[in-house]
Structures are given as C-alpha cells and as structure tokens.
Design brief:
The chain is α+β, with helices and mostly antiparallel strands. It contains 6 helices and 14 strands. The radius of gyration is 30 Å and the shape is elongated.
Length: about 280
C-alpha cells in the first residue's frame, strides 16, 4: 500500500506585538492626558509593589490592545488612555511591549480608563461588530464589554469633570454608584477612584486620582518626598523647642535649690551643658 503525502499550505501564525502597528497615524490629545496617565501610574506604584512582589504586571498608556486580526491591523485594536493588566510580565521575551496582543496573552486588563476630550460619545459607543456586507469597526464600549471583557471601565470627561465607572456583571457593564466619598471602589486593587482638584506638573486641574479603601489619597513619589521633608522639619523644630524648653527650666530649678548634678539628671542634660547654660 502506497501512502501519498500532499503538501499542505498552512496559514501564517497570528502576529505578535512586534509585528503589529504601534500607532494609527492620528492623534486626539490635549495637554492634560499625558500627566493624567503619569499621576495614576506613579501614585499606584506602592499598591502594585505590594500586590505583585514578583513584578508581574503591565500598565499601558495609550497603547493598542489587539483583539482580532484584520486588515489593516489597526482596525482590530483599541487603545485605552490607561489600563492595568495583572499577572503578566512587563516585558515580552525581554522586549519592551509595543502593544498588548490579546490572542497571545489570554489575560484581560483589570481596568481601562478613557480620558474623553469631548462628550464621551466614542467612549460610550455600543455599536456591535457586524458581518453583513462590509465588516464595520465596532464601538469601543462594545469591544471592552463583549470581546476584551475588562472588569472595570472608567470614562472621564475632562471638559465636564464627569466620571463614570462601569463594572462587568453577568457579561454586561453596569454603571456603578459612587460611595459616600464620591469615589468608586476597585475591589481587586483595594483602592478607590475619584476626582481631585489641585496642581500637578504646573497644571491646576481636576484629576483622576486613587485613594485607599479608607479614603486616604495615594500620593505620587514627589508628594511622598515633600511629606517626608515636612515631617522631618517638624520633628527638628519639636526637638529644638524641647531643647530650648529644658534650658529655660534651668534657672527655675536653680532657684528651687537643686544643684547642677540634680538639674542635669532631671532634664536629661550633661553636667557640662547645664554649666554652660548657667554661664560657668
């Protein structure tokens, strides 16, 4: 019996992050979007270090999430302004991520945030994917909800200072109600998301910020350094005040009849320090 082997033409493998476009050649940015991403990433750092001591997580800032293979490739991607993916390596085969390819990772982001420059219509677009006639590009909201299935989705309208947060429940996004602090709980991270008015990178704006589940604002590295400096300065001033108070007490103790050795012991000073204060 003779076996006949036929050469089979196999389809090419799905592309990875190095074979897909990093951008689509357009931009719809404003001067707040870049620092807005930084303040979110910077202040969340200590939380992520505690949750991922092994460093296995990735944060995307305006990076493409590829969810289907199509031509041109950009039509198969959405690029949230900010997103966080737990339990994936920060690098892929030692290379910096150029995009996040869902069919290679099999791990959805936990949360995606969009900073809407307009009224948020593109971010709320629920247009489904249609195969009747020409294949359309579905709406961003529909892709995050039905395909990528991101558990938390936030839309921040910058011009209106309006924040909406959705949670994926039973396969559909449900609009969450804020808590008594006006924040939205992101339970898996143990944090809350809300709005904060203040100055960051020379801009007085209303920013998206994180709080812990007790309502304490999560600080950026610069804010933590400033706070530490203030604490150290206050401690120095307290120490100087205490030192001066002890020295001011020496004449009163002398009037009471205590000798230099007794005063030194009572005020935790050396005998020499007491003598200098007495002018001896």
């Amino acid at each position: 019996m003779t076996e006949i082997f036929t050469n089979l033409e196999l389809p090419p493998p799905f592309p990875d992050h190095t074979q897909l476009p990093e951008e689509d050649g357009t931009f719809v940015k404003n001067f707040q979007e870049h620092p807005q991403s930084i303040i979110l990433t910077d202040s969340l750092g200590p939380i992520l270090q505690r949750l991922h001591p092994d460093g296995q997580y990735a944060i995307g800032q305006d990076c493409g999430i590829y969810w289907r293979e199509i031509e041109p490739p950009e039509k198969g991607a959405e690029a949230p302004d900010w997103f966080y993916v737990p339990n994936v390596p920060p690098l892929v085969n030692g290379e910096i991520r150029r995009s996040y390819v869902l069919w290679r990772e099999f791990m959805a982001p936990l949360i995606a945030l969009e900073f809407a420059s307009g009224d948020g219509s593109p971010e709320r677009d629920r247009t489904p994917l249609s195969y009747s006639g020409e294949i359309n590009k579905p709406g961003k909201f529909w892709v995050y909800e039905r395909i990528v299935r991101i558990p938390y989705y936030g839309i921040y309208e910058i011009a209106n200072s309006k924040l909406e947060v959705y949670r994926l429940i039973d396969g559909f996004y449900q609009l969450l109600e804020p808590n008594e602090r006006g924040h939205y709980a992101i339970a898996p991270l143990g944090v809350e998301l809300g709005l904060w008015e203040g100055n960051y990178q020379n801009q007085n704006q209303i920013w998206l910020r994180w709080w812990d589940d007790s309502g304490n604002l999560l600080l950026t590295g610069t804010e933590r350094a400033e706070l530490e400096h203030l604490r150290a300065e206050q401690e120095r001033q307290r120490a100087e005040s205490a030192e001066q108070a002890r020295r001011d007490a020496i004449p009163k103790l002398l009037e009471m009849g205590l000798n230099i050795e007794q005063i030194a012991l009572a005020l935790s000073l050396t005998v020499e320090e007491v003598r200098r204060s007495c002018g001896e």
